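User: Sequence in, structure out. Go.
Assistant: Echoing your sequence, followed by the C-alpha cells.
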Amino acid sequence: MLAAFVNSFALFAISGLLVTIAPFWVLSRRKGQKLNVRAAAVHVLSDLPGSVGTIGASLVIMPTRWIPIDPILSVFVTTLILRAVCLVTKERASILIESAPKVCRLRRSVRYSSRTCQG
C-alpha cells in the first residue's frame, strides 16, 4: 500500500517538474528583466526544488521505508525558497523606499544634474 502511494506521489512530482521547466525557461531567457519578471521566475523556480525533493523522498522511501526523509527534504526546500524570496523582497523594499536601483549609475546622474541645475 505504501509503495503505491509513494509511486503516485513520484509520478505527480515528475509531471509537476516537467510542467514547471517550460515557464521557468521562458522567464529566465528574457534580457533586461524587470523585477516583476524576476519575481515570477523565482516563484516558478521555487516549484522546481519541491518537485525534485518529492522525487528524491520517494526514491528513498520506496526501498528503505525511511519516512523522515520527507520532512528533512521539505525543510531544505523551504530554506531555498525563503532565501530566494528574501532577495527579491529586499530589492522590492529598496525600490519602495525610493532608493536608487542597482542598475542606475548614481554618480553620472548626480554629475549631470549638478551641471544642468544652477543654484
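User: And one key feature?
Assistant: The chain has one domain: 2-116.
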